[in-house]
Design goal:
Helix 7 packs across helix 9 and helix 9 crosses helix 10. Helix 10 links the parallel strand 12 and strand 13. Helix content is 27%, strand content 30%. The strands form two sheets. The protein has an eight-stranded mixed β-sheet. The protein has a single domain, classed as Ribonuclease Z/Hydroxyacylglutathione hydrolase-like (Metallo-beta-lactamase, Chain A). One zinc ion binds next to loops. The site of one zinc ion has 4 residues, from loops.
Length: 288
Amino acid sequence: MSDFSVTLLGTGTPEPLDDRIGISTLVRAGGETLLFDCGRGTGLRLHQAEGSYKTATVMFLTHLHSDHVSGIPDLWLTGSIPQMRGREEPLRMFGPTGTENLAEHLQLAYSADVEARQPSRDMAGFGASPARLEAADISPGVVYDRNGVRVIAFPVEHLIIEPAFGFRVEYGGRSVVLSGDTTYCESMVDNSRGADLVIHEVAAVPEGVDSTSPLVNRVVSCHTSPEDAGSLYNRTAPALAVFSHIHYILGASDDDIIAGARRTYDGEMVVGRDLDTFEVERRSVRRV
Ligand SMILES: [Zn+2]
Ligand SMILES: [Zn+2]
C-alpha cells in the first residue's frame, strides 16, 4: 500500500441509500490518518475500512450541514469505548465558524453517556480523554501541519451556508483536493491546480428532464453539475478525478454523470463508491 491513500468511506447525500452512506473521506498520509466530514454511518464504514475506531483522531469539516456532521456522535462516543477498540486520545475537530459551538453542545447533549461510561475508561487507563471533543474554528490557510502532512482550507461557494471550505492535503510532493459542497468556483479551480487526485461533489439530473421546479433547482443551484465538474477537471488536469457526495436527482444515474462530464473533459474519471480506495503517487492514482 502506498504511504498516501484515500478511502471514500461514504459517498452519499441526505438521501437514505443502502449502498451510499453519508459523506466522509479518509486520507492516510505517512503516519497521519485524517477524516474529512462525518455523515451518517461514518463510524461503521471507518470500522470496515480500518478494523477499529482507533485511527481516526483528527477530523476536518467542510461545512456544518447536517449530512456532513450527523455521524459525529457515533464516531466520537463509540470510538471512546475501550471494548470497541476505540481511540486512546480525544477526537479533534477542525471546521468553519460554529464548529466549537457544535462540539460544546454535543458534549452537553451526551454528558449522561460520557459520565456513565467513565468507569470503564478509567479501568482501561485512558482517563477522560477519549470522550473529549477538542474543536477549533478555522480560517482559510494552512490548518494542519504535522509529520510532513499539510492540510490547507480554502473557501468554496455553496451559497446556502457560509463559510464552506474545500481542503487540499499535501504530502511527499503529492496532493489530494476535496471540494466539499460547492458550485463551480474559481477558488476550487485555483486550489486544484497540480493536484494528483481531485474528489468532487456532483448533482446530476437525467437528460431531458425538466429541472426548473423550485425544489430541484434549489439542490442544483448550490451544487456542481457533471458538465461543470468536467470543466474544472479539464482546467486542472488531475491524474484522476473522482466523484463523491453524489446527488442523483429525479432518477439520474452514473451514466448521466459520466455523459455530462464527458462533454467537457476527456481524462480519467471515476464515479466513487463507498470503500473505494485510491493510492496516490506523483501524477498517477490507482484504485485498489
Ligand atoms: Zn451542504
Ligand atoms: Zn452536502
